[in-house]
Recover the amino acids of this structure.
């Protein structure tokens, strides 16, 4: 079965969604990610959706759910690289993902996590 | 769509806004944010004579979409008449940053990017009226 890779970078997890999401893939990502947050004791989760071209309400809700689950596990989620068309679609669907932090690209998202997460030995720090 | 300086876009809107125009502006702005990697966009509506519920809603959508992409929006140039209309129409501008003038929005943009305007040396005018902080020159 197809899976989305979850990479560990310092104290954060990096998820890059490169394929079109279907519902089962989204659910398995949810499972894997929560498992990985616990296993690696990650403090931040970076979800790169710059290759994601199509979203529906289910995927939108999944992003919000992942962020909420991560928050419960004491990790903060940053969604990066959302395309204009995707952003417009989500807003039209009424999903403005309040509570999810966003950044323009992976670099800026990583800076957001390192700055507010209080990561001393962050391998992802670029300063 | 104007790039003010690195990371800051300005969108001066002039003339009557209808749905198709605001929609076009929204799409162009979001694309420009991606292209220039801007973290802040100032939507200036000084040149807009009237705002109705539909236009206000479109502005709100633009701000929400920009936030999803990781950029902040400031709406500036709200004239008293428009402020009254917005409240009378019952439009909720909840957590959108609004400023009365473009200058105020520009000030925020400077502060957010840790920049400041300093006057270089003393001009003839500044020499006579001393002890004036160098900010606020536009």
């Amino acid at each position: 079965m197809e899976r989305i890779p979850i990479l560990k970078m310092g104290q954060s997890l990096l998820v890059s969604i490169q394929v079109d999401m279907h519902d089962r893939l989204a659910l398995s990502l949810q499972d894997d990610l929560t498992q990985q947050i616990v296993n690696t004791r990650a403090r931040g989760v970076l979800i790169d959706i710059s290759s994601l071209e199509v979203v529906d309400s289910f995927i939108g809700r999944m992003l919000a759910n992942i962020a909420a689950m991560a928050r419960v596990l004491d990790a903060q989620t940053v969604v990066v690289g959302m395309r204009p068309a995707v952003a417009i679609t989500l807003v039209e669907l009424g999903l403005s993902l309040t509570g999810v932090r966003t950044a323009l690209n992976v670099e800026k998202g990583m800076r957001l996590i390192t700055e507010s997460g209080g990561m001393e030995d962050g391998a992802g720090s670029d300063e | 769509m104007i790039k003010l300086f690195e990371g800051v876009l300005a969108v001066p809107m002039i003339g009557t806004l209808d749905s198709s125009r605001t929609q076009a502006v929204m799409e162009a702005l979001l694309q420009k944010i991606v292209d220039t990697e801007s973290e802040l966009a100032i939507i200036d509506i000084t040149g807009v004579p009237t705002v109705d519920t539909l236009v206000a809603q479109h502005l709100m959508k633009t701000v929400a979409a920009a936030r999803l992409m990781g950029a902040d929006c400031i709406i500036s140039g709200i004239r008293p008449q428009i402020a009254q209309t917005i409240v009378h129409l019952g439009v909720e501008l909840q957590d959108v940053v609004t400023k009365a003038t473009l200058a105020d929005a520009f000030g925020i943009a400077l502060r957010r990017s840790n920049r400041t305007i300093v006057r270089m040396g003393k001009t003839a005018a500044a020499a006579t009226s001393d002890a004036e902080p160098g900010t606020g020159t536009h």
